[in-house]
Write a structure and sequence with these properties.
globular, two-stranded antiparallel ribbon, 3 helices, 10% strand, mainly alpha, 62% helix, 2 strands
Length: 78
């Protein structure tokens, strides 16, 4: 099990996510982001706007995902 924060995954808060794979981690982060968006949290909304710009740039998104995967892989098991 590894731990990353919302901020580490492109969000805006220090909530921690715990997962065995990066894919699980990404799903949890996305779910959290959508929940915060639904609550109208301005900081998360701004972070999501930045992520949306990345999604519109396939090469940029690919590089971002690869860097986050590497960051996840380097984390210690807890």
């Amino acid at each position: 099990m590894k731990t990353m924060t919302c901020k580490q995954l492109g969000g805006s808060c220090d909530i921690e996510f715990h997962a065995k794979t990066f894919e699980e981690m990404a799903k949890m982060s996305k779910k959290h982001g959508m929940e915060m968006y639904g609550k109208g949290d301005e900081e998360h909304i701004n972070a999501m706007k930045e992520m949306k710009e990345l999604v519109n740039d396939p090469e940029g998104m690919k590089k971002w995902m690869e860097s986050k995967q590497k960051e996840f892989d380097a984390l210690p098991e807890t």
